[in-house]
Amino acid sequence: MATLQTRATARFMMSPAVILLFLWMIVPLVMTLYFSFLRYNLLMPGTEEFIGFLNYQYFLTDPAFFTALGNTLMLVGGTLLITVIGGILLALVLDQPFFGQGIVRLLVIAPFFVMPTVSALVWKNMLMHPVNGLFAWIARSFGFQPIDWFAELPLFSIVLIVAWQWLPFATLILLTALQSLDGEQIEAAEMDGAGAISRFIYLVLPHMSRAITVVILIQTIFLLSVFAEILVTTNGGPGIQTTNITYLIYMQALLQFDVGGASAGGIVAVILANIVAFFLIRLIGKNLER
Amino acid sequence: MGSITLQKVSKSFGTTAVIPEIDLEIDDGEFVVFVGPSGCGKSTLLRMIAGLEDLSGGRIVIDGKDMSNEAPAKRGLSMVFQSYALYPHMSVYGNIAFPLKMDGQEKSAIDKKVKDAAHILNLTNYLDRRPGQLSGGQRQRVAIGRAIVRQPKAFLFDEPLSNLDAALRGNMRLEISDLHHQLKTTMIYVTHDQVEAMTMADKIVVLNAGRIEQVGSPLELYRSPRNVFVAGFIGSPRMNLIEGQEAAKQNATTLGVRPEHIRISKTDGAWKGTVGVTEHLGSDTFIHVQVDGVGKITVRTDGDFSTEFGQQVYLTPEPARLHRFDPNGQAI
Description:
- The complex is a heterodimer of chains A (290) and B (332).
- Chain A has a single domain (54-289), classed as MetI-like fold (Orthogonal Bundle).
- Chain A contains 13 helices and two strands; from the N terminus they run H-E-E-H-H-H-H-H-H-H-H-H-H-H-H.
- Chain A has helices at residues 4-35, 54-61, 63-94, 101-109, 116-127, 134-141, 149-152, 154-179, 183-191, 196-223, 228-233, 245-255, 259-289, and strands at residues 38-39, 49-50.
- In chain A, strands 1-2 form a two-stranded antiparallel sheet.
- The longest helix of chain A is centred in the first third of the chain and has 32 residues, at 4-35.
- The mean pLDDT of chain A is 86.
- In chain B, a hairpin with a 3-residue loop joins strand 15 (284-291) and strand 16.
- The longest helix of chain B is centred in the middle third of the chain and has 18 residues, at 166-183.
- The mean pLDDT of chain B is 88.
- In chain B, helix 2 packs across helix 3 (107-120) and helix 2 (92-102) packs parallel to helix 4.
- Chain B is an alpha+beta fold.
- The interface between A and B is medium-sized, with 19 and 24 residues.
C-alpha cells in the first residue's frame, strides 16, 4: 500500500468485514454486561430490576466459585503438562525415520478430529468404565481391583481425556519445529562431544522453545473453556469436584435459570481469562521476540 | 600428533558407489586441500574422516590408531561447517565454550581458553553477542574459535568460505593460512575453488567422481598435471585444451597450453586468429582469440596490451610449456 489514497481505499474496502466482526463481538458482550447487573431469573418473569453488583457479590462469595477456579487451573495446568511433555517425546519419536512413518503420523493426529463429546463418551464407556472398560479389564487380568475412574479420580480422568485430545496438536506443532532444526548444528554438537541428552538440552529444547510457547498459549485459551467433556462424563461431580468456571456458569444459567448470576459469572470468567492472557503474553512475548 | 591415513576407504549409498576406493597419507602438520567439482565426493570423504558418515569399507587411522568405527567426538578432530552451524541461542562465548563444557572442564580453565581463542581471532568485543548479530566473517571466526579451543589433532574445513563475499573470502584465506602457521596443526580443507586450493595448500588432492586424480604440491600440479582433468581444473584462467590436427602434429590426442604460456603479437607468430572478447583486469588482460583450425584460445598478457574486437593477431605457444595427453587423457 504505497500511497495515502490506496491506504484509504483499502480501509474502506475492509470496513464491512471489520464492522460486522466488531458488532458480532460487542453486542453479546454488552448484553452480558447489562444482564449481570439485573435480577433476572427465568423462573420469576417480570421481576427484572437493577441490583448493582449483587450478582457479582453472590457469585464471588459462592464457595463453589473457588473450587471451580482451582479445578479450572488444575485442568489447564495438568493438561498442559501432559501434552507438552508427551508432545515433545512423541515428536522426537516421529522425527526418526522408520517404516510406515506417513501412516503413523496420520494416526497420531487422528484424535484431534474426534468431537469432544464423542471422545469423552468413548473414554467414559469403553475405557474407564469400572465394569466394561478396557482399563478395568486390564486391571482384573493382573488381579487388581479395577479403578472407578470418575468416582475416585474424577478431575484426573477429565485431564486425561482432554490431554488425549490435545496431544496431537502439541505433537504436530513440535514436530514441525523439530524438523526445522539444522542438521549441521546437531553434527557440530556431536563433534563437540555432546551426547544425546546434552544435545537435547542445549540444542533441541532451545530450538523448540518458541513452538512450545505457541502450544502453551493456544492450548490455554481453549482449555480455559473446557465444557463438553465434563457435561458428558461427570456432570461436574461427584459434588463439584470436576466443576470448572465454565461449567459453574452453565449450572447458574441453565440449571438454576439465574441469567443475571450467570452473566456476572461470565464477566468474571472474561476478566480471569484476560489476567491469565496478560501474564502469558508477557511471559511469552519475551520468548517470541527472539 | 595428527597424522591421518586412509586405507582402501570406500563409500556407497545403496548400490551407487560414491567413493570407489581411496588410499591417502596425510602427515602431521600438513595443510591438505581436497579439491574437485561439485558431487565428486570430497565432502563425503571429509565427513567420513570426521565420523559423521559410516565407512562402507576400509580403515581410517589417526595417529596410528584405527578410528574407523569410533564416535566423532572420540577422534579428536574438530570441524568447521559450510553453514558454520553455530548454536543460535548461545552467545559467542557460549558457542566457543560448548566443546569444553561438554568435556567437563573447570569453569576457570574454560574461561581462559575461550578468552585466548577470542583474542587470537579478534572476537574479544563480541563475546556477549549472539550469532544472529554478527556478520558473515565474524560468524566464520566464531566457528573457527569453537574448533580451536579443543586443541584437536586436526581441523576439518568443509567449504568454509563459500558463504562469504569475494573480498572477505580473500581475507579469511589469509587468516586461515596464518592460523595454520601459528598452530602447526594438521588441517584438511575441502573446496571446489581451485584458487583457494592453490593459495593455501601444502598438498592438494584433486578428486573426480570419488577417485583421486592426482596428489601433489600446488606447483607440482600446475607444472605437471598427470591428466587432462587435473590440467583443466588447476589454473585460472583454464588451460587451453586443443584437439585434432594441431594436437596430432605433436603426437598427442589433446594438447594443453596455459594462457600465460602463449605469446601474442600483432605482426607474426605460429597461429593466426581473430580477437574476440577482451577482459581487462588492470594487471593482466585475458584475450579470447578465435584461431582458425585450432579453436578458441585464451591468452593472458600484461595489462598494457591493447586490442580491438575483430583485430588480427598471431599467437605462439612456448614449446617447453606444452602439455601432451594420450587418448586416455593421461600425460605423455
